[in-house]
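queue> pop job 88
queue> type: inverse folding (structure -> sequence)
queue> payload:
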């Protein structure tokens, strides 16, 4: 099949809420609670966020890998060149989901124990859009971006598999040196992706607080919609190419950036 069933259902649910959000926005515009400049700014900003999500989702750092030639009988095997694609945003939307669960926990406790003054005070500090909320929320997102990437990609395992099959990175000794090199590159590549996730997550709260936007603009929902759409398009493209058809993205393939 094409696409992930659960992801598509979630995406459809998010898209289904957009018409109502747009209607409420124009109602707010008619009541004078929002001016045309703010509306134009939000439209331009939304396009910019979508473009940035596409770039960060498809962005890759490709580490070149060479395989040594082997003589088996009278035939020469190996000698191929390939690469290890390290995505800028390996974790996807997972860090935001984890961070939301943690940042909402004080508010949940405050609702469960309304008589506790300490919990009420802590919950008031973590009000969406507040400086402390933004700082803590962003920090948690960046932490989970690195944590999830470390769980999914293990540089030691990658280096061992390459060494096992005769692969090596040009200029880097196989084994421990290769693992250290991959870990160093992965750490650098993950940083812009983690910071981008934090920005995408906190900017909607700032817009709601400053511009009184009537819906949760962008953020996690937009990240999920764009990510699932890109994944579905790539799967359709792969099925077309497997059946010897010209892919509909032939002249503009959604490839990772070097």
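queue> result:
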């Amino acid at each position: 099949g094409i696409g992930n069933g659960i992801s598509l259902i979630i995406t459809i649910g998010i898209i289904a809420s957009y018409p109502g959000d747009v209607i409420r926005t124009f109602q707010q515009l008619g009541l004078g609670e929002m001016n045309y400049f703010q509306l134009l700014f939000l439209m331009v900003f939304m396009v910019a966020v979508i473009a940035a999500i596409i770039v960060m989702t498809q962005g890759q750092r490709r580490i070149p890998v060479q395989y040594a030639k082997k003589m088996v009988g009278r035939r020469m095997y190996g000698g191929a060149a390939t690469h290890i694609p390290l995505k800028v945003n390996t974790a996807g939307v997972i860090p935001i989901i984890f961070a939301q669960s943690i940042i909402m926990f004080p508010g949940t406790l405050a609702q469960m124990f309304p008589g506790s003054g300490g919990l009420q005070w802590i919950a008031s500090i973590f009000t969406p859009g507040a400086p402390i909320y933004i700082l803590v929320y962003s920090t948690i997102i960046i932490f989970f971006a690195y944590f999830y990437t470390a769980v999914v990609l293990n540089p030691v395992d990658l280096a061992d598999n390459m060494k096992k099959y005769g692969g090596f990175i040009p200029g880097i000794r196989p084994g421990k040196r290769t693992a250290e090199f991959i870990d160093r590159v992965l750490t650098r590549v993950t940083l812009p992706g983690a910071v981008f996730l934090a920005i995408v997550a906190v900017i909607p709260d700032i817009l709601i607080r400053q511009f009184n936007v009537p819906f949760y603009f962008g953020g996690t929902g937009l990240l999920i919609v764009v990510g699932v759409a890109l994944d579905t398009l790539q799967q359709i493209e792969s099925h077309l190419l497997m059946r010897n058809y010209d892919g509909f993205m032939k002249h503009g393939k959604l490839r990772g950036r070097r």
